[in-house]
Amino acid sequence: MTLGGTVMVVTLVVAGGASCLSLLNNNVRSPDAMSGGQSVVYKTEPASEFKSNKWETVETTAFAATDDSSVLTIDHAPRETDSFPMHRSGERLAFITERGSALDQNRLENAPRAQQIRPQSLPVKEPLTKLVEFDAAPFPYDGGERGSYHDRRVLLHIPEGFDASRPGVMVLFFHGHRATLERDVRDRQQVPAQISASRMNAVLVAPQFAVDAADSSIGRFSQPGAVARFVAEAADKLARLHGDPPTAKTFANMRIVIVGYSGGFLPTAYSLSVGGLAKNRVRGVVLLDGVYGQLDKFATWIENNPSSFFISSYTRLTKRHNDELEHMLTEHDVAFSRELKPDLGRGGAAFVSADVPHRDYVTHAWVDYPIKDIVSRLGDYQLPTSPSAVAQHDASVRK
Questions:
Q1: What radius of gyration, in Å, describes the C-alpha atoms of the chain?
Q2: Global pTM?
């Protein structure tokens, strides 16, 4: 999209939920997990000061059940320095990585700081994925370094073929309970891989919230304007990762699609209500089994942004809250559907039932790899197929 000669790019934010995997002996395994059906309480911020005069305030205490069945595994846990192209392996995406190498935890933690950023020509010739510390990260909120609330890192990903001279989309992903960026967002849920597989001109920005904790606290993101400051810093950090500082302006002008999984509903709701993002900056919102509360914030945004899209895909865990949100929209004559449009560019709200295991929802929902599916429906940002992508696809088919 071009406004006044300026290329506009879209940013997509995704939030994640309960996750209980750990890395051990170079495999992705499931440790002692909460039994299916056990409930955990989301700790939410008081919403009283953000009440809408138009919408009825909805109870914000939320419950989510975990389910460790059908765990998605990958052949090898990628390292920070590995490349991130992917191919089809059976019914899943798989990272192409070195086989048989031991996981060096020290390097895993220190590689994001030590890795040099190499200048990249346009379009980007290889995928770039890195953990970067942000000043405007959600945590630490009070300046402390305590427990699960000290990690200020953000997962950035620029796929092969990304072209800063073309319209593009930035994906902001918000994870939920018991998640880390490496173990869950990157490796288990394969969010960077899904962005790359979409073959759209998209980048990923995924902040760390409470580390591996059953807590939906959002720290600084509860403050007015905090999300806008975070996105502004993301533009500079992405330009550095890209290797071309002038592209900071390109990233700063990108529009945003926010995707929130499970407990990620809370930062998503506050991003829409007090985040400080410019009007029409958010192109769309996707909640993956994530409507647990804050319904007034979502309903207000949907009504006030008819040209943007809102998608909620849900299981039996969140069906009641989705029904309530549908009822709120109906009372205000806001239309919605129960199926996804092939092209999301025209906006509109949709509610899609997909009753699959909650903990696998980022990789198995109405389709396998729902984030890939959503980004692929943003037709304005399609990239030409690269020779390497064709070669990878052909190789996977032969297998």
A1: 19
A2: 0.72
- Sign of the alpha-carbon dihedral angle for 255, 260, 265, 266: negative
Strand, coil or helix: 186: helix
Of 293, 343, 289, 295, nearest to 318 by C-alpha is 289
- Comparing CA positions, the residue from 192, 262, 269 lying closest to residue 227 is 269
- Match 């302006």 to its residue by tokens: 249
CA distances from 83 to 71, 129, 158, 161, 361 (A): 24, 8, 11, 14, 25
Three-class secondary structure of residue 2 per DSSP: strand
Q: Can you say whether residue 258 is alpha, beta or left, with left for phi > 0 and alpha for psi between -120 and 50 degrees?
A: beta
Q: Is the dihedral of CA 363, 329, 296, 235 positive or negative?
A: positive
Bridge partners of residue 22, in order along the sequence? 29
Residue type (1 letter), 209: F
> How far are the Cα atoms of 8, 123, 209, 238, 386 from residue 243, in angstroms, in the given order?
20, 12, 27, 8, 20
Determine the 3-state secondary structure of 44 from DSSP: coil
Task: For residues 87 and 204, give the distance between their C-alpha atoms in angstroms, rounded to a whole number.
Answer: 19
Pairing of strands 254-261, 282-288: parallel
The Cα–Cα gap between 375 and 255 comes to: 13
Domain extent listing, the chain: 2-398
pLDDT tens, residue by residue, 292-339: 999 999 999 999 999 999 999 999 999 999 999 999 999 999 999 999
Distance between CA atoms of 168 and 162, rounded to whole angstroms? Answer: 8
DSSP 323-364: HHHHHHHHHTT--EESS--S-GGG-EEEEEE--S-GGGTTTB
The one-letter amino acid code at 275 reads G
What DSSP assignment string belongs to 54-103? Answer: SS------EEEE---SS----SS---TTS---EEEETTEEEE---SS---
User: Rounded to whole angstroms, how far apart are CA atoms 79 and 89?
Assistant: 20
At 29-42, the pLDDT tens digits run 333 333 333 333 33
CA distances from 162 to 169, 247, 346, 379 (A): 10, 12, 24, 15
Three-class SS of residue 24? strand
Q: How far is CA 48 from the centre of its chain?
A: 27
Six token digits for residue 96: 């192409």
